[in-house]
């Protein structure tokens, strides 16, 4: 029997030091992810960064060369069936049987998940309610829009009430209205379940996730809360407005890398490669009579952090 003495009730997933080798090639190296109940974590990275391999290991479809995975305290290697029963998975291409009706497909999914036959009908009803499919039970899956097929895919992933839900590109190919609906669904599921969301749509991560892991070359390049990413940008940026703006020549005369550019709003964006330029600008404004009347620190977006961490000329997929 697996040892669950050290299991924290709110920790649904603990993947520690995951490494996967293919011969001499390292696909994933020392990746660790911990997931708490009620938390949505974004898993990001450029193509070839190791996201798919990581998800395959977490879902139990691929054994790590090194490392351990516990789902609700159950060791994936020692008790794979029990551990997998705690996980719901939606691949990028949903595993749907289009010739079946929604109710038929979800009933089949429930049987595959070994839900008691007396409880399957209620499980299908609950999954449909959560995914906004109440009126779709008699519809052929092939006749549904792509947005509703995604909902059916999510419904099969949660039919057995898993503790951990893993979603791979759940909004790819959807129109803006469908994307908003799926994001709202993911956020609502995150109230009870733990979710790992893999996506290339960075605004989606900012809208839905609590934390983010960015993989690059098979390693974790960044891991923090969404709010914590604001300090991840190396350069320091402020937006300012002056009554009498300084000339660009003044900035070019400084020898510490500070730069200024005009913004569409009529103000100026001032950038320093490493140091917050606020004190320098306030002091210079007083000394030179620029009449500084507005100053805001610019917070890094997830897109800026992502590009900064993963952009290099030598990168290979």
Folded structure, characterized:
- By secondary structure, the protein is of the alpha/beta class.
- It has two domains: 220 residues, P-loop containing nucleotide triphosphate hydrolases (Rossmann fold), CATH 3.40.50; 66 residues, Alpha-Beta Plaits.
- 30% of the residues lie in helices and 27% in strands.
- The chain has ten helices and 14 strands.
- The strands form three sheets. The chain has a six-stranded mixed β-sheet. Strands 2-1-4-5 form a four-stranded antiparallel β-sheet.
- A hairpin with a 2-residue loop joins strand 1 and strand 2.
- The relative contact order is 0.13.
- The N terminus and C terminus are likely disordered.
In CATH terms, what is the architecture of the largest domain?
Answer: 3-Layer(aba) Sandwich
Instruction: Enumerate how many helices there are, as a single number.
Output: 10
- In total, how many domains does the architecture comprise? 2
Cα-to-Cα separation, first versus last residue: 41 Å
CATH topology of the largest domain: Rossmann fold
Strand content: 25-35%
State the major sheet.
6 strands, mixed
Looking at CATH, the homologous superfamily of the largest domain is P-loop containing nucleotide triphosphate hydrolases
Helix percentage: 25-40%
> Would you tell me the structural class of the helices and strands?
alpha/beta
| Spatial strand sequence of the major β-sheet | 6-7-8-3-9-10
Low-confidence parts: 1-7, 313-317
Strand count: 14
Helix/strand order: EEEHEEHEHHHEHEHEEEHEEHEH
CATH top level assignment of the largest domain: Alpha Beta
Radius of gyration, CA atoms, in whole angstroms: 24 Å
What is the average per-residue confidence, as pLDDT, rounded to a whole number? 87
Tell the overall outline: elongated
């Amino acid at each position: 029997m697996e040892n669950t003495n050290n299991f924290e009730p709110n920790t649904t997933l603990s993947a520690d030091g995951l490494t996967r080798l293919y011969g001499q090639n390292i696909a994933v190296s020392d990746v660790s992810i911990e997931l708490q109940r009620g938390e949505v974590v974004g898993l990001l990275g450029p193509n070839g960064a190791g996201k798919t391999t990581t998800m395959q290991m977490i879902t139990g479809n691929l054994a790590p060369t090194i490392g351990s995975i516990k789902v609700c305290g159950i060791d994936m290697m020692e008790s794979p069936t029990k551990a997998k029963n705690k996980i719901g998975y939606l691949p990028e291409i949903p595993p749907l049987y289009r010739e079946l009706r929604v109710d038929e497909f979800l009933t089949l999914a429930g049987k595959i998940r070994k839900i008691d036959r007396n409880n399957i009908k209620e499980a299908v009803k609950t999954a449909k309610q959560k995914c906004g499919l109440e009126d779709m039970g008699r519809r052929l899956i092939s006749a549904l829009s792509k947005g509703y097929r995604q909902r059916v895919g999510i419904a099969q992933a949660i039919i057995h009430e898993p503790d951990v839900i893993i979603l791979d590109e759940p909004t790819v190919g959807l129109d803006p209205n469908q994307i908003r609906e799926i994001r709202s669904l993911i956020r609502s599921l995150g109230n009870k379940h733990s979710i790992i969301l893999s996506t290339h749509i960075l605004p989606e991560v900012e809208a839905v996730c609590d934390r983010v892991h960015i993989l690059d070359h098979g390693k974790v390049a960044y891991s923090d809360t969404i709010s914590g990413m604001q300090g991840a940008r190396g350069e320091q940026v402020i937006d300012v407005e002056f009554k009498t703006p300084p000339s660009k020549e003044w900035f070019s005369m400084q020898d510490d890398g500070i730069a200024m550019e005009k913004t569409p709003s009529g103000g100026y964006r001032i950038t320093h490669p490493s140091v917050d330029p606020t004190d320098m600008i306030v002091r210079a404004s007083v000394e030179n009579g620029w009449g500084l009347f507005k100053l805001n620190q610019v917070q890094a977006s997830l897109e800026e952090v992502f590009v900064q961490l993963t952009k290099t000329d030598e990168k290979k997929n």
